[in-house]
Amino acid sequence: MENRNGETVKHNRVYRIWYQMIRRCYDQRNDNYNRYGAKGVTVCKKWRGSFESFLEWSLIHGYADSLTIDRIKRNKPYSPSNCRWVTYFVQAQNKGMLKSNTTGVTGVSPCGKYGYRVYISRDGKRLYVGYFTDKNKAIEAREAKELEYELTGTI
């Protein structure tokens, strides 16, 4: 890996984040490859080929040692238009579905006699959308709330 003008050493944490981002997307031996590369997650050519490019973007877009890189849309690549620096809490709200989820949809979970509970979590907030006896209605309600969030930026 390149080490121009000591930037790698000076910004060691950013370098490690960049390096691990590439490894989880392209190195099949990486422990997280099955959650990223195996699912088609990639890194844009600009970042994949240049730590300096990633570093420049990071410093301009609010990097701080207390933050972590987050893909805004989970089905899109790591790229300047799809990434942001956020707290660990905010990133946790953007994670995929739990392994224990039996519905196959994030934010839709079985809830005993009530059928299915629907919620959306964004920006450190969780909004319970409601309870639905029909799984498909629950999924539709979740998708509608996601769309509302994308359009308004609030839940």
Short description:
With 155 residues, the chain is of the alpha+beta class. It is 37% helix and 17% strand. Helix 2 packs across helix 4 (51-60).
Q: Could you explain the architecture of this structure?
A:
With about 160 residues, the chain is an alpha+beta fold. It is about 35% helix and about 15% strand. The protein has 2 domains: about 80 residues, no CATH class; about 45 residues, no CATH class. The chain contains 6 helices and 5 strands; from the N terminus they run H-H-H-H-E-E-H-E-E-E-H. The protein has a 3-stranded antiparallel beta sheet with strand order 3-4-5, covered by helices on one side. A two-stranded antiparallel sheet has the order 1-2. A hairpin with a 2-residue loop joins strand 4 and strand 5. The longest helix has 18 residues. The radius of gyration is 18 Å and the shape is elongated.
Keyword list:
three-stranded antiparallel sheet, 37% helix, two-stranded antiparallel ribbon, 2 domains, 6 helices, alpha+beta
Which secondary structure elements does this structure contain, and how are they paired or packed?
Elements: H1 7-10, H2 12-26, H3 45-48, H4 51-60, E1 68-71, E2 83-86, H5 88-93, E3 108-110, E4 116-122, E5 125-132, H6 135-152
Antiparallel strand pairs: 1-2, 3-4, 4-5
Helix pairs in contact: 2-4
Strand content: 15-25%
Task: Round the mean pLDDT to the nearest integer and report it.
Answer: 86
Largest sheet data:
3 strands, antiparallel
Our count of helices gives 6
Order of helices and strands: HHHHEEHEEEH
Radius of gyration: 18 Å
Give the domain tally. 2
